[in-house]
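Final report, results section. Input specification for complex C-07:
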Amino acid sequence: MLELTAIETFYGNIQALKGVSLKVAQGEIVTLIGANGAGKSTTLMSISGVVHPRKGSIAFMGEDITASTTERIVSMGITQVPEGRMIFPRLTVRENLLMGAYLRKDKAGIREDEEHAYALFPVLRERRSQMGGTLSGGEQQMLAIGRALMARPKLLLLDEPSLGLAPLVVENIFEIIVQINKDGVTVMLVEQNAQMALQIAHRGYVLETGHVTLEGPGKELLSNPKVRSAYLGLD
Amino acid sequence: MLEQQLVNGFTLGLIYALIAVGYTMVYGVIELINFAHGEIYMLGAFLTLSFISMGLPLPLAVLLAMLAAAAIGVLLDIIAYRPLREAPRLAALITAIGMSIFLQNLAMIIWGSRPMPFPKQALPAFFSEPALTFSDVTISWMQIIIYAVALLLMVGLNLIITRTRVGTAMRALAQNQTAASLMGINVNRVISFTFALGSAMGAMAGIMVSMYYNTMYPTMGYLAGVKAFAAAVLGGIGSVPGAMLGGVVLGIAETLGAGYVSSPYRDGVAYAVMILVIIFRPSGLLGRAVTEKA
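Structure output:
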């Protein structure tokens, strides 16, 4: 479904990705783990077209999207829940959700998906006329996920959904990610919480300073001695 | 006397408010003080003059001038500011000052540098007649038209910003550009729309001022632009209702200053009010403090 071939992305003269290749197949949950600065967020931003790789290529559903605009990429079915949630603090919860459906014209479908978001996250219905910035961290994360789903994505990119959240809330968010995947959305999950991410992922990649250094099924990476010592703090 | 000053100050204030919303909206989306905005206001007046001299009726001339000014505003952004979007902010600011000087001089080449009257024959004769008179207060038809047009435009602008899809996108963009583009919002298109909207409002202000004072000149945008910028800061830069309120406060302060202090001090009084507000409320009357919960 998604294929990255040796992409190299720069911020000015600083090279953040030094040839990242990975694949995501339809229906999978794929996770990308790694330390701060490994290039996880840059990989997602490259897929979304917010930054464009200087070398290598990105293909989605057989089409080359390496140089496509974010607008085009979103309309093809890739949406991102960015790191730090980035909800719109001075739009209401409902307006935030509707911004997720910005490129869609089917009013009835949008209405249906708004209901679906409220069903998935009942707290959002209660707070739908409240400003996004007044929500708690966990509620903002739910809003960010709900907003991304409003685009009816084929592939959902999630960047650190557990960041700064209480353990119980993290568990709740991860249950919902699994649920979303069961509903037919392919998921690519970037996490520092490697333990949680590898438990729900079909496959995983380990990223270190701009390179993929390990890959394999989630369960396998969980028991890999290198991953256990470097990312899980075990052994 | 006081009542008459308030009436005149409110008129001037609404004009400042119409210009100020253009500054504040553009600042809201790209954090740029568009110093060439005063020249859009000036071009509104001159374009109307040209359209009238081509034989068009007043309403059509005004409408076309607003549309042309909107197009010039959009072009200004595309040609001068868009290439500098990733550059240090000072570069865009200096470019804005450059565009202001360029447009002033372009107007001098096209229309000459001497003040021109608004073509009287195009205006209905009753415009300058008093519409309402209470004891010693007179409100002219022209003033009533300024009130009506300015209020209508501002209500319309508010509806666009709060109720429409593109207006919501404008607010989203102002709050978080990366997130807005991740929604699939075409950031440049929304910025163009913002310039168009602000420029049309500014042009209308210039058109009405040139009718009200019966004069227009290529440098008229400079002082009006600085005043409206002060109004936007006074109201809280980035806040549209703030710009409207700031404009009215500034217009009334200036007129009262001219009436009760002395008329050479009118600008001084206006700026003094702005400075006082900024000292005691740095974010402006309706502005927000900059820090907020992530």
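Residues 167-182 of chain A form the longest helix (16 residues). Chain A touches chain B at residues 48, 50, 69-71, 74-75, 79-80, 82, 84, 86-91, 95, 98-100, 102-103, 133, 147, 151 (CB under 8 Å). This concludes the modelling results for the funded period.
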